[in-house]
Amino acid sequence: MRPPADDAERLELIMKELDSLSALKGTHMILVEGSKDIAALTSSGVSGDFFCVQSGGGPVRAAEAVWKAGKSAVILTDWDRRGNQLADDLRTNLMALGVVYNTRIRDTLAFLCGPYAKDVESMDSVILHLEKSLLEIRGVRMGAIIVIEGIDGSGKSTLCARLRDILSAEGRDVVLTAEPTRGKVGGLMRSGAFEGVSQSTEALLFTADRNDHTEAMRGWASEGKAVICDRYFASTVAYQSSGLDGGSVDRDWLLSLSSRFVGVPDLTLLLDADPAVTMSRVRSRGEDMSKFEEVRFLRRVREEYLRLAKEFGFKIIDASAGPDEVLEAAVSEIRKVLRCIRRRRSTVRRA
């Protein structure tokens, strides 16, 4: 195999190999040395049936597990080839049981990652390093904009903070932001300076704030940062069109105001839960209730959110589940999108 011409080609070939690994899900078990290997692979977007050889009882138990599952095996141990004993023992035991195994993916990934990593557990770090090295390529957007939506009490703020911590721990630069912002327009809105204006005027103010905010988010993403935004255009449409105090703003007009923002997020996650559940959370925290936090009104907002999710492809997460389950579902969706972004930009070449 010839060495990649540059980092862009190296990243593209790595991602293709990881795709081929995920494509074996259902027919193969992926044999790795330990849990750190699984964490690195899943962080890199790989899904599959993993087996930790060291913690699972060694090569004999690993081979038996594959045989009992009626599957083939992918051996991903011993990248550095210094000992290769574990891989040799796995091959011996798999052959004894008549199990078909694959070492090609390991050999290819070890070759491609060789300059930067000695084992599987560094896979996600290799990808991150290559992504950062591609920042110099003009026109390549290296970051991502992730929006979290949902009615009050759905857990947006908690989820945003936990996502920031997880992505930061993976080595990503993360920007946590929200709407309304604390900028010139958003700051005035938060201060109550515009209290008493009509809903149409309020929608225009939200849009003005969003216009400046969008430019900032695009700038952060172009620098390779993962931007996590608490509320975006869907909040304005959902809340302003749902008939607060018996009045509402024309939905089509709100959508026309939002047309330039629809394609900005790489992913929008909608935390969906019954307003009775979310309001009980708000009350349990002892927080003051805003004018938007009335159950009947929020039921209409929820319906509008679900309508928007269908129209614009938001990913819906059951926010009535526990915070850990919500986090797990969100991280899964984010990793899928980050991987798609990697694949899109890995095909770009230096001019």
How would you describe this structure to a colleague?
With 351 residues, this protein is α/β, with parallel strands linked by helices. It folds into 2 domains: 7-136, Dna Topoisomerase Vi A Subunit, Chain: A, domain 2 (3-Layer(aba) Sandwich), CATH 3.40.1360.10; 144-346, 3-Layer(aba) Sandwich (Rossmann fold). The protein is built from 14 helices and 9 strands. The protein has helices at residues 7-22, 35-43, 59-69, 85-96, 104-113, 123-133, 156-169, 184-191, 199-222, 233-240, 251-258, 275-284, 295-312, 323-346, and strands spanning 28-32, 49-52, 72-75, 101-102, 144-150, 174-178, 226-230, 267-272, 315-318. It has a 5-stranded parallel beta sheet, with helices on both faces. A 4-stranded parallel beta sheet has the order 2-1-3-4. Helix 1 (7-22) packs antiparallel against helix 5 and helix 10 (233-240) packs antiparallel against helix 11. It is elongated. It starts with 6 loop residues before the first helix and ends in a 5-residue tail after the last helix. The mean pLDDT is 87.
SSE layout and pairing:
Elements (H helix, E strand, L loop, with lengths): L6 H16 L5 E5 L2 H9 L5 E4 L6 H11 L2 E4 L9 H12 L4 E2 L1 H10 L9 H11 L10 E7 L5 H14 L4 E5 L5 H8 L7 H24 L3 E5 L2 H8 L10 H8 L8 E6 L2 H10 L10 H18 L2 E4 L4 H24 L5
Helix pairs in contact: 1-5, 1-6, 1-14, 3-4, 7-14, 8-9, 9-10, 10-11, 10-13
